[in-house]
Amino acid sequence: MGGERPGPRRGGKMAARLSGGENRLVSLPLSRIRVIMKSSPEVSSINQDALFLTAKATELFVQYLASYSYKHGRGKEKNALTYSDLSHTAEECETFQFLADILPKKILASKYLKMLEKEKRDGELGKCDEEDDDEDDDEAVDEAVGS
Fold this sequence. Notes:
Elements: H1 11-25, H2 30-38, H3 48-72, H4 75-78, H5 83-92, H6 109-146
Helix pairs in contact: 1-3, 2-3, 3-5
């Protein structure tokens, strides 16, 4: 009875606790996180403590992202967190900019198709300009050879 407290502490005690009650300590499924971690070629084995800490850190990060997006988005007005709030946070907040490719702003399909058409037209104009430049160069060479 040397004053030991129950619950997660160090080393083996945390692993022992995790084996029975990990679902109560984290919301994310540890089996899925293990699969994601093992998908890395550098990972050969996963310590239970590392698995738990990765799950808990991920959970806390998602909570922080959600609360930040809610507070700085339109969530308060609608009393809801929307995808637009998340994508706006990823685009505007330096801390979350690494998520900008994962959380792009939503656009209508019609706008996207117009953007593609415009890019295609701009690309063709660029090619035409390059071809015109090439033709001008050919004429200059012909004139130089003819003299």
